[in-house]
Amino acid sequence: MHPAFSVVFFTIATGAGYGLLALLGVLGGFGLIPADFWLGLAGMGLALGLIIAGLLSSTGHLGRPERAWRAFSQWRSSWLSREGVSSVATFIPAALFGIGWVLLGSSGGWVAVAGLLTGAGAIATVSTTGMIYASLKPIAQWHSRYTLPAYLIFSAMTGGVLLNALLQSFAVGSTAVLVCALLATLAGWAWKLATWRHNDRLEIPTTANTATGLAGGTVRSIEWPHTEENYLLKEMGFRIARKHSAKLRRITQIIAFAVPAILLAIVLASPWPFAAIASALAAISQFAGMLVERWLFFAEAKHTVTLYYGRE
Fold first, then answer.
1. Which residues pair with residue 139 across a beta bridge?
2. What is the pLDDT of residues 54-72, one digit of tens each?
3. Model confidence over 248-275: pLDDT tens digits?
4. What's the CATH architecture for 5-309?
5. Distance of CA 127 to the CA centre of its chain
6. Bridge partners, residue 303, by sequence
7. Where are the domains of the chain?
């Protein structure tokens, strides 16, 4: 698949934004994070800013962005439409939670309920995003049991690292949040390695014979169905050299998982403000690394339509 930057940024920004929003809703709603105005304003602003920036970025991949609103009408059958509906619906309890926790400085009661609904909406939205890709049967690398959990793990991971950086910057760091962010980073690393291992061993049953329905012998393409590159090849026929893929995988492991994990471990033994600096660097490194990881997610995927162009 062709890794369009608008979609790459969308999946990372919204995943991190909804992960942070869910954690703020649950922890803030139950008073596990202090109801401080500036902390709340910065946290909600960062979470909603990432979400909105990601959603707006996704429209850049549309041929007619002004028609994006039509996607909301197909929620009965389309995961993309369900994602749109869920993302907008989550803003309602998030707004109520923000009013109670940020403006009124309250927690518990109806603020906790709003926080729980915000968390549930965020999880549902990330799940629908994951299902957009997990439901695509023509792309075997995505149509697996690894895709949906990856979206949820990465959302919790990036959201947790952002929350830790936010708390540390206000000198109200939580050891529980820090440890959970570190464990989520290690879990994301392990899950990514397992996903790569699965995809590398994947045996795709579809061939040129089964795709064309011509049994017997070996079907091969003599020439392309057309003389110029079209939408299918541009979007579905992207190819990346194996050596480049291996290099980018190493880069992903280093800056998305290893460096943040090391920095978070350093935070455990560092006083403020060194803990705040290390936490911020961990968040920045992880976000950059996840951009590479998402680029690979698209670049390494192979659509069966390319069989019609002589690519096995």
1. 303
2. 888 877 656 566 666 666 6
3. 999 999 999 999 999 999 999 889 899 9
4. Up-down Bundle (1.20)
5. 10
6. 139
7. 5-309
Burial of 264 (0-12, 13-18, 19+ CB in 10 A): buried
Rounded distance, CA 28 to CA 116, Å?
10
Q: Are 19 and 159 in contact (CB under 8 A)?
A: yes
pLDDT digits (tens, 9 = 90+) for 146-193: 999 999 999 999 999 999 999 999 988 889 999 999 999 999 999 999
Residue 311 — pLDDT band, cuts 50, 70, 90? low
pLDDT at 304 over 80: no
Contact 184, 157 (CB under 8 A): yes
Q: At what angle do helices 175-200 and 274-299 cross, to 10 degrees?
A: 20
Specify the long-range contacts of residues 48-51, CB closer than 8 Å, at least 24 apart: 48/17, 48/21, 48/91, 48/94, 49/17, 50/13, 50/14, 50/16, 50/17, 50/20, 51/13, 51/14, 51/17, 51/18, 51/21, 51/87
